């Protein structure tokens, strides 16, 4: 998979800055992510779109997926309109520098997060059967997200800050003795991340068939704050999860492709 990066920040981010981030994230995908998941991708910076992109230009070549870099969340409608005009049907993600500032993290972390999510579930339509976060005896369908559960944790690659991510064993129904559930495996309260759980500042989304609706497990104030800030960018990839959930209430759950 090739993920095209299109810079719509009107000079806020220079090509040099973006290329430095791309090199680090490509290294993360190749050396850290792919050995565990056995699938990967490469990020590639495309031509500039100008101050206010209106139509696809020849230099705006796209790959198999697209991530747009924008400044303000007020530009969401314009950003989505730009994507629909030029790359409708192509998997996409957005990085808003304003949201990164509100979260108090580097925009490179958000780019890393979006890139890994695209690699893991490009169409945002995969679910995993697992225990309810508040009631382990109850089964729900978790969103197949690579970073949400550990999104408050970061590490450096060549001085570029990138996001932590979960590993395949995270999505197993039973705990495996000595198993690693996330890349950094940091210890919190004497324990590392458990399957279908979250680390401080993280959250997980899921569909609850008993309630016939989507829900989000946010165990602490930091997670709630992150959710409030991220919800400012309504209509981006996260909304695809809710659109998927809206189709699950008409007895079609058994027809979905469920990954265990």
Describe this protein's structure.
- The protein is of the alpha/beta class and 260 residues long.
- The chain has one domain (2-255).
- The protein contains 6 helices and 10 strands.
- The protein has helices at residues 15-37, 76-87, 97-103, 107-120, 221-230, 237-245; strands at 2-7, 42-45, 65-70, 92-96, 127-131, 139-143, 154-157, 160-163, 204-208, 213-217.
- A hairpin with a 7-residue loop joins strand 5 (127-131) and strand 6.
- Helix 1 packs across helix 4 (107-120).
How would you summarize what this structure contains?
The protein has 260 residues and is an alpha/beta fold. It has helices at residues 15-37, 76-87, 97-103, 107-120, 221-230, 237-245; strands at 2-7, 42-45, 65-70, 92-96, 127-131, 139-143, 154-157, 160-163, 204-208, 213-217.
